Amino acid sequence: MYTINGAYVMRQEDVTGSLMVGKEADFIVINQDILSLANSGQASKIPGTKVLRTFLAGDEVFNAQDHVTEKDYDEYYGEESYDYYK
Is 64 in contact with 77 (CB distance < 8 Å)? Predict the structure, then answer.
């Protein structure tokens, strides 16, 4: 993985670089699998990807549900259910 190699170079692999209990993590949850889209010839759909949640140092700092109504969420994020990532 790219993240563990970067952590290793910085000598931070004990703190970050992989998703494990006790490590800090920065990551996002998105509404579609962009790798599957790319591999199936549907790369043109990738720009429509929406961020559902954002985590910094393992703490949630953004949740799309906190910023829109359930109706707007379903319209904006398409296939994902409002309750899916609660």
Answer: yes
Q: Which residues pair with 60 in a beta bridge?
A: 55
Number of residues that make up the chain: 86
User: Bridge partners of 30?
Assistant: 51
1-53 confidence digits (pLDDT tens)? 467 888 899 999 898 888 888 888 888 999 889 999 999 999 999 999 989 89
- Per the structure, the complete domain to which residue 33 belongs is given by 24-86
d(CA 30, CA 16): 21
Q: Is residue 64 part of a domain?
A: yes
* Tally of structural domains, the chain: 1
pTM: predicted TM-score of the whole model, two decimal places:
0.68
Instruction: Name the token pair of 32.
Output: 């579609």
Question: Does residue 45 sit within a domain?
Answer: yes
DSSP 8-state secondary structure symbol assigned to residue 80: S
